[in-house]
Automatic annotation (TrEMBL):
Name of this chain's protein: Alpha/beta hydrolase
Ranges for domain AB hydrolase-1: 34-273
Taxonomic path: Archaea, Methanobacteriati, Methanobacteriota, Stenosarchaea group, Halobacteria
Top-rank lineage group of the source organism: Archaea
Keywords, ordered alphabetically: Hydrolase
Pfam families recorded: Abhydrolase_1 (PF00561)
Amino acid sequence: MVPDLREDAPTDEVQLPDGRTLAYATYGHPDGAPVVFCHGTPGSRISGRLGADATAEAGVRVIAPDRPGFGASDRQRGQTFADWAGDVAALTSELGVEEYGVVGFSGGGPYALACAAHTPGRVSRCAVVSGVGPPGSERGDLGFERALASASRVSPQFGRPLVWLMARAVASADSFTDVVGDADADLADPRRGESGRVLLADFREGLRQGTTPLATDYGVLYGDWDFDLADVTVPTRVFHGREDANVPLAAGERVASAVPDADLAVYENAGHFRPIVEEARDVYGWAAENEA
């Protein structure tokens, strides 16, 4: 029996200016340099727990909010990337944090970039980890990911049947690895270790409010973005595995080449999850300007 890590997941809340509730969790060093973590799709604040020991050792305080409709955060109609940047700015202001780094993993990559583009006075550095690329980018080798991307670009409604199938896959620890690539099978298997249990709990918590928020999020990710990568002027680093089957390296290369002050760190023999699981010290240390 795989333990359900959602049962002891930390949760705090703030009320946003428009009245919505935004849920978040903090990990790492409680007095460390602040870094906001933007979770994947699906996902939740729980994935901020990945690499928590490494972030604590690096002197980094990870602030991991749930996006609208995921986990314990209220839904939002007509959500945009700009809205998310505003939500993060409001959350950090409530916490007394004026400047922070951002880390975006997978589907959270564009949301981290949006924070850097829309609120550059607040964001010091932006790290994109295995991140989804801009419209027109190459899609992954996993069939359901390619189908979701294509359907969601037309309309979030078209993606809902595929989202439902994904939700069924993550309902069981035995089938969870069906939604990851071969290079990630060991890291993502909840029957084998801590990282897999965190990822399973993260996906399940991300689907807590049903599949509609996930379909909506895919629509934002694969629709037309409300910012240009050229608008991201803060120092940016793209961390990507060469064997990523969910989001190909070419997507990361495209982001790194389009952002004015960006570079690319490629991990050999690594899939989608290794950069955020096993290289958390590098990722968060860089984002917080606390490199060893």
